[in-house]
Design goal:
This protein has 102 residues and is an all-alpha fold. It has one domain. It has three helices and no strands. The radius of gyration is 17 Å and the shape is flat. The termini are far apart.
Length: 102
């Protein structure tokens, strides 16, 4: 039986990168899955819907930057929290439910 040998910290970096890329992929799939729904909305709802999807794209990009080591975990969390705040602004566009069929 062979035992994998990792240098100190190597395994955690690899796992961190894989988890971040998987999170980005999930967000990309959510956005891709809802683009067709956006086209079916009345025009007055399309803009807020598109803005929410754009925020998700931005968070996915932040995850990819984190996976590449370009930003810290703290910066990733800051960007994600900022996106959620923008999506939840009371004076901003009305939130649109991102679940089909409801």
């Amino acid at each position: 039986m062979r035992i994998a040998e990792f240098r100190p910290g190597e395994h955690s970096r690899r796992s961190r990168r894989a988890r971040a890329l998987a999170s980005a992929q999930v967000l990309d799939e959510i956005v891709d899955g809802h683009l067709e729904s956006m086209r079916q909305l009345p025009p007055e709802f399309r803009e807020p819907y598109a803005e929410h999807l754009a925020e998700l794209v931005g968070v996915a990009q932040a995850y990819r930057h984190y996976a590449a080591g370009w930003i810290s975990r703290r910066e990733l969390h800051r960007r994600a929290r900022a996106a959620l705040r923008r999506m939840d602004e009371p004076n901003g566009p009305a939130p649109v439910q991102l679940v089909d069929g409801e």
